[in-house]
């Protein structure tokens, strides 16, 4: 197992681009999981474009398997007085891997402020059972970089569960002082799609698009995060799900949506 910071340090500059060999310990099957691909893209953007206002939103399309030697490029689409929009692309020897749009915006005074995203009332992580198999007997892959505890909702392949939904406490085993927003992107997509609660047996899935909106950057990435995922509609082999991430103190950190292809 390698820390998130160590993995991100493997991203090196080559001309105007940034390159990295896909780390096997952060993969699922033949590809990196989406969160680390998006985190690499964000890391490349922030290194290439210097001083930027705070990240407000990221929109990622996953095009092909993130494997082998990955190259990340980016271009400034617009820079205003308080905002910046930057496009990012990831390619490998087989072609396009991912395409992203990162939206940055400086804070400003506003008379409008509200919060209708209270954290669910759940037991603390120490009182919750593991969500997935952990430890030396767990299969190799990105999952071993996280600890997880099921706080509420169904388990994977619990086809009789009332809803395809779960809330899971999650934390990095070793974040290694990585940038807090890069870490937020990585952990916000670390769970399997909620539609898998209703699967009767294991079957392939593939995330197609992911949008994550940043509400509050975490103070650090060391502690527990509560991630809720809910499949709101599934039909014809596709699931549309909503996601919300809170810090252990109950502060909402991010919300997201995913379109997922399901093969069962």
Question: How would you concisely characterize the structure shown here?
Answer:
The protein is mainly β and about 260 residues long. It is about 10% helix and about 40% strand. Strands 1-2-6-7-8-5-11-14-13-12-10-9 form a 12-stranded antiparallel β-sheet, covered by helices on one side. A two-stranded antiparallel ribbon has the order 3-4.
The coarse silhouette is globular
* Tally of helical runs: 3
Radius of gyration: 18 Å
Overall pLDDT, averaged?
95
Number of strands: 14
CATH architecture: Beta Barrel
Descriptive report:
With 264 residues, the chain is mostly beta strands. The protein has one domain (4-106, 127-262): Porin. It is built from three helices and 14 strands. The chain has helices at 4-9, 34-48, 180-187, and strands at residues 12-14, 17-21, 27-28, 31-32, 55-62, 69-79, 83-92, 95-105, 146-153, 165-172, 205-214, 225-235, 238-247, 252-262. A twelve-stranded antiparallel β-sheet has the order 1-2-6-7-8-5-11-14-13-12-10-9, covered by helices on one side. A hairpin with a 2-residue loop joins strand 3 (27-28) and strand 4. The longest helix is centred in the first third of the chain and has 15 residues, at 34-48. The two termini are 32 Å apart. The mean pLDDT is 95.
List the helices and strands and how they pair.
Elements: H1 4-9, E1 12-14, E2 17-21, E3 27-28, E4 31-32, H2 34-48, E5 55-62, E6 69-79, E7 83-92, E8 95-105, E9 146-153, E10 165-172, H3 180-187, E11 205-214, E12 225-235, E13 238-247, E14 252-262
Antiparallel strand pairs: 1-2, 2-6, 3-4, 5-8, 5-11, 6-7, 7-8, 9-10, 10-12, 11-14, 12-13, 13-14
Helix pairs in contact: 2-3
């Amino acid at each position: 197992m390698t820390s998130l910071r160590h993995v991100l340090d493997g991203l090196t500059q080559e001309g105007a681009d940034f390159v990295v060999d896909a780390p096997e310990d952060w993969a699922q099957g033949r590809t990196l999981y989406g969160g680390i691909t998006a985190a690499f893209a964000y890391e490349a953007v922030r290194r290439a474009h210097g001083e930027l206002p705070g990240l407000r939103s990221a929109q990622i399309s996953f095009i092909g398997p993130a494997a082998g030697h990955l190259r990340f490029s980016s271009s400034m689409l617009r820079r205003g007085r308080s905002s910046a929009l930057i496009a990012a692309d990831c390619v490998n020897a087989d072609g396009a891997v991912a395409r992203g749009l990162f939206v940055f915006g400086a804070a400003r005074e506003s008379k409008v402020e509200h919060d209708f995203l209270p954290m669910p009332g759940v037991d603390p992580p120490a009182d919750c059972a593991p969500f997935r198999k952990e430890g030396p007997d767990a299969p190799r892959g990105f999952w071993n970089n996280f600890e997880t505890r099921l706080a509420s909702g169904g388990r994977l392949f619990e086809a009789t569960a009332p809803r395809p939904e779960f809330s899971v406490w999650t934390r990095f085993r070793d974040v290694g002082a990585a940038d807090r927003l890069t870490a937020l992107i990585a952990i916000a997509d670390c769970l399997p799609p909620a539609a898998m609660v209703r699967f009767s047996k294991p079957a392939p899935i593939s995330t197609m698009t992911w949008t994550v909106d940043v509400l509050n950057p975490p103070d650090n990435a060391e502690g527990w995060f509560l991630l809720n995922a809910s499949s709101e509609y599934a039909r014809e082999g596709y699931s549309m799900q909503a996601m919300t991430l809170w810090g252990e103190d109950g502060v909402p950190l991010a919300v997201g949506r995913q379109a997922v292809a399901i093969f069962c």
